[in-house]
Amino acid sequence: MNFELTDEQRMIQDTVKRYLRENIGPIADEYDRKGPMSKKDAHKFLQDLKPFGYVGTLVKEELGGPGLSHLDWAILHEELRGSYASLGGVVGITSSSTHGISESDNEDLVNRVLPDLLNGDKIACTAITEPNIGSNAAGIETRAVLDGDHYVINGTKMWISNGTIADYVVLAATVDKSKGPAGILQLLVEKEVSPFESREIKKMGVKSFPTAEIIFEDCRVPKENVLRRPGEGFKKALRGLTFARCNAAIASVGIAQAAIDAAVRYAKERTQFGKPIGQFQLIQEMVADMVAETDAARLLAYRAFFILDQGGTARKEGSIAKAFATEAGVRVTSKAIQIHGAYGLSEEYPVERYFRDARCYTIPDGTTEIQKLIIGREILGMSAIV
Length: 386
Ligand SMILES: Cc1cc2nc3c(=O)[nH]c(=O)nc-3n(C[C@H](O)[C@H](O)[C@H](O)COP(=O)(O)OP(=O)(O)OC[C@H]3O[C@@H](n4cnc5c(N)ncnc54)[C@H](O)[C@@H]3O)c2cc1C
Prior knowledge:
By secondary structure, this protein is an alpha+beta fold. About 50% of the residues lie in helices and about 15% in strands. The protein is globular, with a radius of gyration of 21 Å.
């Protein structure tokens, strides 16, 4: 077992750390207060971050992508989420959706849309959740009915990250609800070709990471845009969810580490009773707990990414990492506020943003409760969800 990053990974880490510290960290609060990121800003950031491998990170080199590993992704995203979590969300969802598209066996479609995505010229999202379908993703109600050369889509998707700014939607829909998961396919909806309505949903954290309701009303999508046939569509969505869970875990680690750095800085500067508050044992206890939880979360996340790199499913390990890291993120960022006293609640310090951002990660990609049921199923061989 080797706990060391390779020289190349350390170089990636150092390079992005420096770039993000100088260019992204200082503008994060200002951008976040502006609310959901505009498409123009998202494009600009994608261009800026492309040279580091943030765009289409996992897409194979032979397809024109950076061809980086899952562990490389973890390193890139831990740093970006710590600097500006919302931006990490915008970039991460585009990048993971792009990877999902690149793995389709519909070569014509992949060859046509991939270059723009890899250039950072197009923004993508992945749409599974619906108003009535959250944890029970297998129950998808959005219909895809074949009519000549098109699928006609009717239904509403909820909580779709990047939904208001996306050019491409990787859509899960059913051709026959009575078939359950076997009826679910994945289609690529191109907004220019198959227009749809979207509405921004305002939320408490990751405020400049757009989240949308997307409404499909008789939306005609060419049948050439099938990414995965019925049945395959659901299996792929589940595999994508495992990766998304690892990603939520590393996002939480990045945010938690940023909160630790801020709390340590503050504990050294702030004096009460004639000494820096960092000298008080109860402050040191909080710092120790924050560091131990974040270290444990990081190791769990890295293990899950490592298993994905080895070709494993990481079904159990991804859920363990997601459940632990996202809940730890909430505890750690809350303690960072406590160490800052009243200043921790003010917008003058970034820790209130870290707390709001971390709070958003225990829900997507399967809530903490759902992760525990997955872990239980993997250990016991019995499913609590019928
Ligand atoms: C910031 C954010 C970004 C998101 N991005 C996307 C996206 O890009 N694409 C997408 O498709 N979706 C996205 N989602 C949706 C997300 O995946 C769902 O919110 C999530 O799966 C939970 O569904 P729900 O909110 O409907 O909660 P529900 O499923 O209604 O759950 C409500 C409560 O009941 C609990 N519960 C449900 N079933 C059980 C059970 N069997 N046993 C015990 N407890 C249970 C849950 O844990 C939760 O506490 C996003 C959500 C958020 C918050």
